[in-house]
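Homework help board

Subject: predicted structure for assignment chain

Our instructor gave us this sequence and asked us to write out the predicted structure in token form, then describe one feature. I got the tokens but I'm not sure how to describe them. Can anyone check?
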Amino acid sequence: MARLKIALAVMICCIMRSAAIFAGSETSNKEPNQMAPDWLCARQPIKASQIPKKDYQYLVQWLDSHAKLPQDYIVHLFDTYQVVIFGESHNVKEHKDFVIDLIPRLYHEAGIRCIGWEFSRYTDNKRLDGLVSGDMFDKEAALRFARNQFAHEFNSKEHWDIIEAIWELNRSLKHGQQKMRLIGLDMDWNAPKFHIVIKTKSQDSPEFQEVLKEVIWKRDATMAEQVEKEIIEKGQKGLVFVGRCHDFTHHKFPPNINFGRDIMGNLLYKKYGDRVFQVWLSSGFLLPIEDVMKLREHRPCGFNLYESPFANILTPPNWGDAPNVPLSNVARGFIYFGPSANFHRNTPIKGFVTKEMFEQYKEYYEIDFGRSFNSAEEVDEYLQQHRFPRPSK
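My token output:
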């Protein structure tokens, strides 16, 4: 019976392709000339290891026919969607560089007037607005702002370079043109206290239960509320730049993963549907996409993953956030930058940790890093070496 179903699915696939060619549709000329594999026509979840290597050529042909250059792909998404969410890896430099390079096109071609990000508190948005809209760019003020956000969590030059990139765009605008806003989405939470508790207290302790209730279960709802308030309700188009696990629109954590907490992207999608779209920025996790890209000489590209032959390929069973989940659930769109072995770690800001920060957060640094420190310089040197691990090859 199973073989009969597959045979029927293949027959339907062939009939549909023949009909499209006969009709002379514009897209028919772009379709792969190789017949779709049986596993694809069956439209059932499949493990990456079950896909025959001989079928990779079909996947290459599909990408050649449908994928766009990464920036073009993103710009055109805003023809359809009001909000596009980027899920980044915090340690991958290329993810921040892509956003920085994209900013002029986002404004002038896609009509973006607001970028929301995870990396600062929404209660500090007035200060942030002053940094991106001032007559001169104040690097010292930007560094002070960065130090004030969640201790050392994002002592990454590339994250904070986004502030200056938006300021440069705004400086280039003509008189009367609306400036681009950069807004923090995160809530005002005590990151040092949070990390101390989760590393020193048992999950059934009152302290752990407090951070579970006040931080873990609230952060994503807060970020979703800020996107709604600052972008959607204002009728603007916006890019939202957050870390992995805040971006998923079509995946929800079960109770046994990440405490079953809400996901910002999922909350927004449930309320606003197809006004919201999510894009995964590649970092080497999604197979066999990486293997297929080798056959395309690692050319960067962007495409709608949920409409692609990769949609029903399952994530690895040991992937903590979404084991055995179809790729289309964790990535609606996909940007491929190149082989992950060539990626770079973020650049930690030298001198980021001040004497005042060391005195205030000494316990936090020692618990979080599992070693003792005698000075701000020691913490800073440690961060230079260890804060952002080299992306996985």
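Reply (TA_rk): Your tokens look well-formed. For the description, you could write something like this. Residues 1-12, 14-29 have pLDDT under 50 and may be disordered. That's the kind of observation they're looking for.
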